[in-house]
Every structure is written in structure tokens, then in C-alpha cells.
Amino acid sequence: MSGLFDTFTIAKRGLNVQQGNINTTSHNISNASTTGYSRQRAVIQTTRPFGGMSRFDSCSAGQVGTGAEIKTIERIRDVFKDYQVRTQRTANGALSEKNSYLTQVEDILNETSDTGVQQALSDFYAKFQTLSLDPTKSSNRTVALQQAQTLAGALNTRYTELETKKNDIQTTLGSDVTDINSMLDQVNELNKQIAGVSAVGMTPNDLMDKRDNLLDELSEKFGISTKREKYEAVDITTTLGSNTVNFVDGNDFTGANCNRLSYVTGTSLDTTTNPAAPTLTVSYAVMGDTTNIKTITITGSAATDATQLDTIGKGLMQNRILVGDQNGLVQDVSTNANDLNGLSAYSAAGNATITLSNFNTNSANVIFDIKTGEVGGKQTVQTTIQNSMNQLDKLAAGLAYTVNAIQTGTDGTATSPLTNKDAIFVTKATNGTAGVTDTGINAKNITVNSVLQTDPSKLNCGLTDADTSGEHAGTRALAIASLKNVKMDLNKIDVTSTSTRNDFFNRTSAAGGNSGVTFKSTTELCDLNGNSTGTTMDNYYKSLISDLATVTKGVASDLANSETQLETYENDRLSESGVSIDEETTNLIQYQHAYQANAKVISTVSELLDVVINGLMK
């Protein structure tokens, strides 16, 4: 049977237990506002009892308790709730980036002011209408040409701002590469520390909280999957198509079998050195380090491969991120099975070459085309921005080709009554040169012919070649003003560096379609027949704005719903893992009383021992 000294030991253990409870509660209160902190609690269990082990034990009444001890300090964390939060953060990250940039694009194409494209287009028609009434008046010609330049400038500005916004997105992807690699390295290092502590039977709660915070941040960048390994380490993977990319290996902290990301800094298509075997050189900053540039050269085997290589180059410049080995290098499969297959041996400088066929077969292993999270949102929203840029190009081309056809009297074919006349809209690159042309004209390079700006009298306003000044009638100026009502199918045309006015009117090949606008050459005046199924240029631009607004509104609505759902999941997780000051204060009072009670037991035992020892000696 236990004695007073056993009772003393039980009370001492009780003091230790309550001290542990008080320490844990104090730690919780101290971290009540710490981001990502999971409240902790001491898990108490009884110590091994005395007696009752066999029939010869002196404890006939059964086992006698020997007190309590703290088994472990555990954190309150639900893995499933973490999964819910991270999955929603991934969706929210993509929508947030899309909404942010689409809102900015809407501001760029804002038509509420008097300086928008719509207003400039309307004023352009109006000035040529005024010119048609009195074409001999020099000021009318000057004003009409000035308004033409204003319209061209509005298109230039809108296109350039959209292009800048797209480039800004691509630049921020470089920052994402650096941030993601840093977070992956931190998770790997925390894995190492956590496994070391867990291996000796302890629970590294605060280290696990730090790691979970990083996993939350990573999930916002892109969709991740986690798997728990021994000693509380975790794997981090993601899926690219049918390919699984391993970023952190919970069983190997050296990173030998893991991947890191690198940033594409540029692409260069070479079709002139060897036209029969064009090449695409891809430059990338290893792990985002712009001081460490490597290249991959993709080689074609036929001149027709140039188109495919150009598409690959544009895609890489949009996605911007490559998957490399643990050092960020895109290496041969013999070096790392997770990297791009088919690469030749590296040169001394660390650069490599791959055939186009091998690249097509294995590109999914290396192009980080993720579609999810902030990274995916930035990658995909560029398509919407590029579509708006393409539509501006089509509008600029439609404007230039129809106006120039009327001005010069030709649809761009070799035969024309007025082939010696100057076009109104030309490309910036050829403006002021002997070979001034509207070939390859688009929203970025459209401008007004400097010949006409210098000498407005050369503006062709009349009906015939003999009446270019419009002394008898402003028929040609009126025809330009009447373009306001001409319908055309601008969506059918392709705008490339080699597109011509004749393509706009006549091309029907697989490479592109014409606008549906036909050219009448029965008279010296270029008369245009519109496309009954098309739309006017003004309505085409309105449709561009409307479609963008619809997409932006849809994304904004999805984002609002996503944020509500994310808030619900985070509050649900916080209700379980978060610290409640009221609850912890209540617990503290309870532990204080328990501590005092155990101290009272020790005091009582001390008094009893005094009676036994001192009393019996008297």
C-alpha cells in the first residue's frame, strides 16, 4: 500500500502537469494574433499504477494510482480543413489575378471620356463629312487629316497600353518563380527540422505551423498536392497534364529527385541562317536568376516548321515558366527523369539542343502551363488581353484598307486608275520613305501619311483623277465619311506583317478570309459594297468593349463567390485551430486552481510527516 511519500510524488506530478497546462495556455495567448498559429493543448495521461500485478501483491484493494503526466503537446489542426482552404485559395488566386488585370484592361479601353477610340472614330467621319461639303477649303483638309491622326493615335495608345499590361504580367511571373522556389526550399528545410525533432519522439508544433503557412501561400500561387511521409515530413507535387512534378520529397531532403522553376527571358526564331532547318532559341534565367542565363535551341527539319516554332515561342513568352531539375536546369532525361527528354549533351556553357519532334513529344514535362492559382490566372488572362489587341489590329486594318482604297482608287491590285495617289493611313516604319505602304498595318503602327500632313492639298477628295482637288464635288471625301455605315466582317481577316489591302478584299485561302467587303472598279471612285452579315467599325469596337465587360463581370462574380467560400472555410478552420482568449483565460483559471490544489496536497503531506516524525520522537 502506498504511503505518504507516494502521495507526495503524486502531488508533485500534478504540479508538473498543471505547470505544463499553464505554459501551453500562456503560449496560446501569446500567439493569439500570430498568422497561421494553431492552438495547442497538453495531452494528459495517468502514470503507471501501483500494485495489482499478481496475486502476491500486497495491495489487496486493487491498483493504486500514481498520478498523471503530460504525454505530448499537440496542436489542434484538421488536415481536411487545410485541404478545403488550400483548394479554395488556389481557385481564388486565379480569379483574383484575372479580375485585377481585366479591370485594368477595361480602364484602358474606357469609352466614357472624349478621348476614346469611339469618339475619335465618330469625329473622323464627321470631319470628312464636313470636308465633302467644301473640299477646296484648305482648313477642312487639315482638320480632317488631324482627326485621322488623332484616331490613329488613339489606336496606338490603346494597343501599346494593352501590350504593356501583358508585358507587366509576364514580368511578375518572374517574381513568382523566385518566390515559389524560395518557398519550396523553405518547406524542404522545415521538413528536415521537423523530421529531426519527430524522430526523437517530440512534436514540433510551431515548425509545422510555419510549414503550413508556406503551404497556404504556395496553394495560392498554384494548385499543389501534399502527402504525409514518416516523421511528419510532407511531399509536394503538382500535375501538368498527365505528368506529375515533384517539388519536395519528404523522404529525401537533399532535393536530388525534386524540381525547381526557371523563367523564360526571351525567344528568338531564326529562319534565315538555314531556311530549310529553322531554329528557335529559348533563353531562360535559371531559378529566376537573371545573372545565370541558359539556352535551349529547338531545331526544325523543314522550312514549314517555322510556323510551329513561332507558335511555340509565343506560347513560351506567355507562360514564361519552365520546370527544371533541383538546380533549375532543363536537362537530359538520363540526368533527371522528370526533365525534358531528347536534349543533347550540354555544352561547356550549360546550353542544350533538342529537335522539334522531341520537344513536341516531351514538352509537357517542362512547360509550366498550370491554369490554376495566381500563376495560372496570369498565364490565362493574357489570352483575353491578346484577343483585345487582335481586335484592335483588325479594326485598324479595316479602317486603313477601306479608307486607303477610296483615297487611292485601288483595292491593292496592280491595275488601278489612281495608283499614283497617296494613301491616308500607312505604317510607321514606312512613313516618310519612298516605299510608303499600308502592308502589315495594325493598331500599333498605324499613322497618317506624312506626305499628306505636309501638303494637305494632296488629299484626294474629288470624283475623278482630273478632279482630285474636289473643285466640282467632294465625292471621295463623302465616300470616306460614308464608311460609317459600311458593314464588314473584321473577325474573318488575319493581321500579320505581310497582310495587304488586297488580302482584306480578296483573300479566301485557308490562311484567312476576306472581310466580305467588295471593291467596285467600274469608275475611278472606289465604291465599296458592305457585308450584310457583318458590322460597322463603330459597332465592332462597341462589341469589343461589351465582350470584355461581360468577361470581366463574370470573373468578378466568380471571385465574389470564391471569396465568400474561402472566408467560410477559413473561419471554419479558425474556429477549431484558432485561439480564443476567453476560452484560454477560463482554462488558465482552472489550471491555477488545480495547481493550488496539488500544492495543498504537498502542504498537507508535509504536515502529516511532521506529525509522524516529530510527534513520535517526543
From TrEMBL:
One of its GO terms (cellular component) is bacterial-type flagellum hook. The keyword Nucleotide-binding does not apply. GO terms for molecular function: structural molecule activity. InterPro entries: Flag_bb_rod_N, Flg_bb/hook_C_dom, FlgK, FlgK_helical. Residues 573-614 form the Flagellar basal-body/hook protein C-terminal domain. Residues 102-299 form the Flagellar hook-associated protein FlgK helical domain. Keywords: Bacterial flagellum, Cell projection, Cilium, Flagellum, Secreted. GO terms for biological process: bacterial-type flagellum assembly. It is found in: Bacterial flagellum; Secreted. The keyword Secreted applies. Residues 10-37 form the Flagellar basal body rod protein N-terminal domain. Its main location: other. Belongs to the flagella basal body rod proteins family. NCBIfam families: flgK_ends (TIGR02492). This is Flagellar hook-associated protein 1. The lineage of its organism: Bacteria, Bacillati, Bacillota, Clostridia, Eubacteriales.
